Amino acid sequence: MPMTIIPVKTATQAYDVRLVDHGLDQIAEHIASVWTPCRVALITDTTVGPLYAAKVVTQLTNAGYCVNVLTVPAGEASKSWTQVERLITAMSTMHLTRSDGVIALGGGVVGDLAGFVASIYLRGLSLIQVPTSLLAQVDSSVGGKTAIDLPTGKNLVGSFYQPALVLIDPQTLTTLPARSLAEGYGEIVKCAALVGGAFWALVTQINQLADLIPNAAALITASVQFKAQVVMADEKEGGQRQLLNFGHTIGHAVELLGQGRWMHGEAVAIGLVQVSRLFEAHQLTPAGTADQLAARLQAVGLPTSLPDLPVTQLLAAMQHDKKVHGNQLTWVYLTAIGRPELRAVPVLQLKDWLAPMIKD
Amino acid sequence: MPMTIIPVKTATQAYDVRLVDHGLDQIAEHIASVWTPCRVALITDTTVGPLYAAKVVTQLTNAGYCVNVLTVPAGEASKSWTQVERLITAMSTMHLTRSDGVIALGGGVVGDLAGFVASIYLRGLSLIQVPTSLLAQVDSSVGGKTAIDLPTGKNLVGSFYQPALVLIDPQTLTTLPARSLAEGYGEIVKCAALVGGAFWALVTQINQLADLIPNAAALITASVQFKAQVVMADEKEGGQRQLLNFGHTIGHAVELLGQGRWMHGEAVAIGLVQVSRLFEAHQLTPAGTADQLAARLQAVGLPTSLPDLPVTQLLAAMQHDKKVHGNQLTWVYLTAIGRPELRAVPVLQLKDWLAPMIKD
Q1: Which end of chain B is more exposed for a tag (fewer CB within 10 A), N or C?
Q2: Quick one: which residues bind Zn(2+) (chains A, B) (predicted)?
């Protein structure tokens, strides 16, 4: 079967992202290319596990691996200390050693949680990401960010920890609910807007949700190539990697304050359009950019309007964003499609800076 | 005041270990050389905090830092999920950002715990180690290993995370209980036995506990230089760093099974002598080596005899050691003072391998 390989090389690890249609049907071959037979903690959730875990376990067992399946409840609430402790205790009970490994089979929650657990158990076990949601395939599985949430905010605890392999099978998208599929597309539009050119042209051809699956391989490849390039230049978010936060300052605040009402990619869709409207008002982004973004996002049914949230809470959420350094919050905005820039705004001026958005 | 600087450079970080007599009295200058004024979580414990925290806070506050002191109960039990969650919650409540930092002021427990917390909060805040026990000064503060314990074993969760600075003030040793001072010397003897030469000659001049303080600067410098050199060659324990585990396979098992009866350095002292006796029995270490080690350790009152522990439990503890890779346990032994070697023993042969020790 055709396979697209995107190499990623950071200071700490070199690995491949492999995009293989029906890749889950030959997963043992891919695993065997990076791990000799060993013990494996296969971490999945209550949605993805029943669909694919048995298939993966059978193949790996036949190939000589000793696999234990550890299942967490589906949903963001599993990115918690409780699940970290539960998984680590299970891995310790299995007597996993440093020559064993962790496979994350699932969406972004499973990838973030399993990646974090793999990074801290015995100070780091080898990790393979098998992302099954579009969001995880284009975004969270690549780049080595792992995380759990705190009551005060998302992803406030975690590590930079690169996997040994990322295996993407676009066939898993066929079992995704429509809303999850659309959500993943939010991050793709973000990448396309940052890259421009042929990638943006591809995105302009997606006019309905049904267009996503036939174009999935091309969309995922373009997104992963871009993300890999950014991560290789800047593993730990000192410079260029900040560009990936486009739409995320408002997005994270909306997601946090919505308390589960918006999925991550939906909140990012809102954030992309709203930050562009804000920077249009400040005359830093050309008029019409926000509408262009909104058209692409609305084509698959993603939300783009700022919900009615208390201004003081939005401000508070932004002030506690991980993107605050010292007393500055760094925003990403477009001077054109494909031309992103950074702008640091002092936290003390944030309320004034947001005024155009809030009056809207 | 005279200062000894030992530079450490790994793939992820370059930093100095500074040995400064009365360094705590000028700590703000040292901190200011690596951090501009920022918020600081000063993590300490109920023993060390009352001695030094006020002095540190006053100096840092005067220099423009905003310091919160976070105190954990003294003792190994603080290397727990409970304290990790408590500290992370406090740091989140303080709204520490990525341009802020963590100072670990205390012994090995504080250094391991605070280092781990610093490594995972916001995926990593800058960390300064200010070790106040001899064990922490010569061993745990240098090299970037952080850890907490699990019910199944010590240091089973953690990270490799290098500090921005290690500041050692030998004056803090004057307030250490005699038992803690002796404990730290166990790791020094380990280093001297691995290095040999002038370092071993220095150690042969320590004939009583009272000899430690006058020679502290020389002993700490030699130990840190050796450890820094090993860590620079092998940050993540693939090869040469394994040498630092000399005495630790038996030592960790004794420490675990003793349930608090032996301090870490005491258990290592037992491990150094016992592993040497074992390898003498296997004719890999020259006869008399264990006695040489025992003489150095007993000079300051350290234990060296194997306590009466159930063999099955000792074996089980060793099998779950982090040093087990695949199905092999790698031992460090001496072919002479200053000439260490590695030997991998299959876990299945471990009982036979240990037979000479157990009969003893």
Answers
A1: N
A2: 187, 248, 264
